[in-house]
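[Q] Does anyone have a clean structure-token version of this?
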Amino acid sequence: MRKLVLFAIILAFCASCGICKHQPTIEYRDSIRVEYRDRIIHDTTSFEIPVEVERIVTRDTASHLENTYGKSDAVVSEGFLFHSLMTKPQVIKVPFAVEVHDTTYIEHETNTEFVTQYVEKDLTWWQDFRIKAFWWLLLIIILTNIKTINKLFGL
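[A] Here you go.
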């Protein structure tokens, strides 16, 4: 039985070398990018001038006035001057500028995969000799010292 255990240990030593495989590692990274943008918007707005009517009576001569926004008429009646001022109904366009602050949040997930690839290459004759010579040397040492190993394990 002890010889069988010793043989199993020797066999395990001989077969213990193997090729290890590396698993690819995957790295997940979330990122959020914030963009700030300031811009000025030039635009035109319009507003309506309210209609205003104003009248005055005085002792004077007749007159008529008119401009872009209004007109004035004066009439003499019974020795009095009747004067009316009226604005024209219209829409006026006024240019203006507004400063706009934009904030944009861009969120995306980046999946980065790192893969380790090994390129197989034949061993040189010297590397092959060293690998085989080690195991043969180990086997010779075990066989020459079998009595010492038996005493050690009490076989």
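[Q] Thanks! Anything notable?
[A] The longest strand covers residues 25-48.
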